[in-house]
Amino acid sequence: MPRILLTEDQADQRALYHDVLTDAGYEVWDAWSANEALELFDRYKPDIVVMDIQMPGMDGVEALGRILDKNRTTPVIFYSAYPAFKANFLTWSADAFVEKTGNPEELVEAVKKLSRDKGIVIPIPKAPGN
Description:
Blueprint: E1 3-7, H1 11-23, E2 27-31, H2 34-44, E3 48-51, H3 60-70, E4 76-80, E5 96-99, H4 105-118
Parallel strand pairs: 1-2, 1-3, 3-4, 4-5
Helix pairs in contact: 2-3
């Protein structure tokens, strides 16, 4: 089962994205901060990282740099409510940028596409109610 490291400082959004990705068949570890994400990255070696950009303390852009210093092959998706970050060249090292639109399925589709592109086995989604 592909492993996702999800970093989101807003508890309600983190829970929503966790549930949607879990329902899509991914194993998901949650981090509420970039510092926690870096600790979990070292511990669990995720297949894909989903990272918010705007967070208290270290932001997602700095965390991306640290992740790339550790491992340049793990794909990273920036997931942000601020589309202006997409034009910031510092975000271009991420493998994908998904704007938070209120439809978490867009994130799932981005994870699936990146999984296919990187040769990560895509899980079979859980049946509703299971």
